[in-house]
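Teaching soon. Got one?

===
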Amino acid sequence: MRVSRKAQEQNKKVVVAGCVPQAQPRTEYLKDLSVIGVQQIDRVVEVVDEAIKGHSVRLLGQKKEKGKRLGGARLDLPKIRKNPLIEIISINTGCLNACTYCKTKHARGDLASYPIEELVERARQSFQEGVCEIWLTSEDTGAYGRDIGTDLPSLLWELVKEIPEGAMLRLGMTNPPYILEHLEEMVRILQHPRVYAFLHVPVQSASDSVLMDMKREYCCADFRSVTDFLQQRVPGITIATDIICGFPGETDEDFEQTMELVRQYRFPSLFINQFYPRPGTPAAKMEQVPAHMKKQRTKELSALFHSYKPYDHKIGERQRVLVTEDSFDSQYYVAHNKFYEQVLVPKKPELKGKMVEVDIYEAGKHYMKGRPVEDAQVFTPSIAQPLQKGQVSGLPQVSLLDRLSLARSTPVFILKKAKQSEWLTEKLSAGV
């Protein structure tokens, strides 16, 4: 909202997209602005063009085919990858839950899955364009296919057939209820050499009372069952999770149960969120935990998380890692091992996009550092030369600026609440 106002004060054109404008299109700060709904992203080019002309456009409708709601923009639309080595594929939109704190459900609605054949074709095309790593994303990957008569394991077994040797597949977030019935199959998939042994399973709270108020549709024992089962059968697996501190009605005892869960499992990746009441959600109408208590609990949980180091015992190991991106400080390349643990390697161009063996010589809270093994084979998983940065997938030699006609005198801001650059590069339609 502040960015929008600042842009308008500077006489710049603004296009707002994402879940918030979709769920609350009548919000005051959206007045007279162009707005794109979550299912209209494939029309961003024409909306930008209209905004430049001074027109206000609102596209917020739901797309349907034969009376059935579609999952979103077509998967075969041209796009520009933020990283030419990584393809991000949304397998479904919406979800089956009705969490009391969530605004996304208001915007994205019920589950709508893409057909398996379309997802497989998108993966196949990605590898033909030099991609060596695929991320599957959605609001809940575990619920995939329930609306179209299939399931997540069925999709994954088809996808792994397309993954070249040395390339890797990373699964996205799945809520506990929808993974419980697939645990045996998921173990076999996560053991596959071309699938990272990594799963993001949000618990949000270890208190069943809080989970009930959240309407999460599982209890803490369900989360423990998922975690224990996977850890026993996929040794070394990385389980990442989310926790909300200070949800309405959370008592000291409720919070202590969450603290004990973290002490027991020592999650290497933990996303800690201080509860914020989103307008229009049931949780916003509940009796709130005082702000100072929410802040204190967030601080205590963060301190616990930072008190342990998950990778110190791995110093001295020899690991095979896939090198895909630059580190935040641009001093290293970032690679990941089989368990999707971050390994920093020397910034040597010949390593980028390759699978290499490294010796771990240092470990921090969120990373390890690896030294490439001398005379070890460097494996190239890509079956084609990766696209140049900024090159359009499916439309070679066409740049983002050319397709969007942004090299004009009037600046344009395209906004989203979070991950603006990732949203722009991963979701822009370049040819509609």
Remarks:
- Confidence is low (pLDDT under 50) at residues 396-400, 403-432.
